[in-house]
Automatic annotation (TrEMBL):
Keyword Transmembrane in record: no
Provenance organism: Saccharopolyspora elongata
Top-rank EC class of the record's enzyme: transferase
Organism ancestry: Bacteria, Bacillati, Actinomycetota, Actinomycetes, Pseudonocardiales
Origin: domain of life: Bacteria
Pfam families linked: AnmK (PF03702)
Protein name: Anhydro-N-acetylmuramic acid kinase
């Protein structure tokens, strides 16, 4: 098969903007070849960022709010897709969008019952004239899976030939891991990545990010607060499992602080939340008997968090850039891969990783400016992914 040029789009749980990546992909027997062409971020306007944060649980959200946000986010994704076309030197074949998650419905038993991503794909199709693969999580949930993290399919292919048990770690608003080469294929959310850190930093500085871990570096871990936070039952729930800001939000942090007799200083609070993220990730990696951890996502740019991980892990930690995959753009390249697989009739949920009943074709396709012309479905499931020079 020839090369397909795909634009991948998503906005993570940090809700700070749209990640964009452009890749050329090709099926070569049982191998997907991926050539990265570039990645960037289109930040949300401040007013849209605040509107999105304002409807997160425990806040309410009316049908009017949801309709307006679906349009505003869709228009922002359309602008991001146009940036992707520029990165692609004016020529692209397909757009894949994971949208913006607004709510991820997980019952008390741990079963995912629904997931909602906004960012109406029709705006993307109108802006680019390209077909759009979107709504990539819902089918996995309908098949009994968690719908997240979908990184399992990328990581299982990309790290297939690594020796031992490799854990691919992504630290976004929520941290998740994929276990490759272990006792069983598995992917799940370990808990808060940057979510609580960003929330606390926003209250302290007005900017929802502890840049370079500078606030955490001024404090020490508050043992009592850490104990309260680690008592959360989510960490002991069996995998596969998923979570989000429906759980790890402002009310959650306030309740934890209310259990303490005194005040917690700003530096100590950020140091403790950073330690929480590192501890819960390290515990999950240890449970999976990781022999190497490959990290990506915004959290790898926090040196305090990275140092804590290296202190707590039993295995060496490398950043995905060291293996040829840009850490900041990995999830957008994942999205491009998911769209590529759907386009070629290949399942996008790695067997066993999300808990779905089996492999499924993911997403819905919105036509571009012309009729849909899908290629012949692939005759075999890919077994590995090879990164090619940009």
């Amino acid at each position: 098969m020839g090369w397909l040029r795909v634009i991948g789009l998503l906005s993570g749980t940090s809700m700070d903007g749209v990640d964009v990546a452009v890749a050329e992909l090709r099926l070569d027997g049982d191998t997907v070849q991926l050539r990265p062409l570039g990645a960037t971020v289109l930040p949300y306007p401040d007013v849209l960022h605040e509107k999105l944060r304002a409807v997160l649980p425990p806040a309410g959200c009316s049908a009017e709010d949801l309709c307006r946000l679906d349009t505003y986010v869709g228009q922002q994704f359309a602008a991001a897709a146009r940036l992707g076309v520029e990165l692609a030197d004016g020529r692209a074949d397909l757009v894949a969008s994971l949208g913006q998650t607004i709510y991820h419905w997980v019952q008390g038993s741990g079963r995912a019952r629904g997931t909602l991503q906004i960012g109406q794909p029709a705006w993307i199709a109108e802006a680019t004239g390209l077909p759009v693969v979107s709504d990539l999580r819902a089918r996995d949930v309908a098949a009994g899976g968690q719908g997240a993290p979908l990184a399992g399919v990328f990581d299982a292919l990309w790290l297939a030939d690594e020796p031992g048990t490799t854990v691919a770690l992504n630290i976004g608003g929520i941290a998740n891991i994929t276990v490759v080469g272990g006792r069983r294929p598995l992917a799940y959310d370990t808990g808060p990545g940057n979510a609580l850190i960003d929330l606390a930093a926003g209250r302290i500085t007005g900017t929802p990010q502890d840049t370079d871990g500078s606030i955490a570096a001024t404090g020490t871990v508050h043992a009592e607060l850490l104990e309260v936070l680690l008592a959360d039952g989510y960490y002991r729930r069996p995998a596969p499992k998923s979570t989000g800001k429906e759980h790890f939000n402002a009310d959650y942090l306030a309740r934890a602080l209310d259990e303490l007799p005194g005040e917690v200083g700003d530096g100590d609070l950020l140091a403790t939340l950073t330690e929480l993220t590192a501890r819960t990730i390290a515990d999950a990696c240890r449970n999976e008997q990781a022999t190497k951890v490959v990290a990506s996502g915004g959290g790898v740019r926090n040196p305090v968090l990275l140092a804590a991980l290296r202190r707590l892990l039993d295995a060496p930690l490398v950043v995905s850039d060291d293996l040829g995959m840009p850490a900041d753009g990995k999830e957008a390249y994942l999205t491009a891969l998911l769209g590529f697989l759907t386009w070629h009739g290949v399942s996008g949920n790695a067997p066993g990783t999300t808990g779905a009943a089996g492999p499924r074709l993911l997403g819905s396709i919105t036509p571009g400016s012309g009729p849909l012309r899908l290629p012949e479905p692939a005759i075999q499931q890919p077994r590995r992914l090879r990164m090619q020079p940009a």
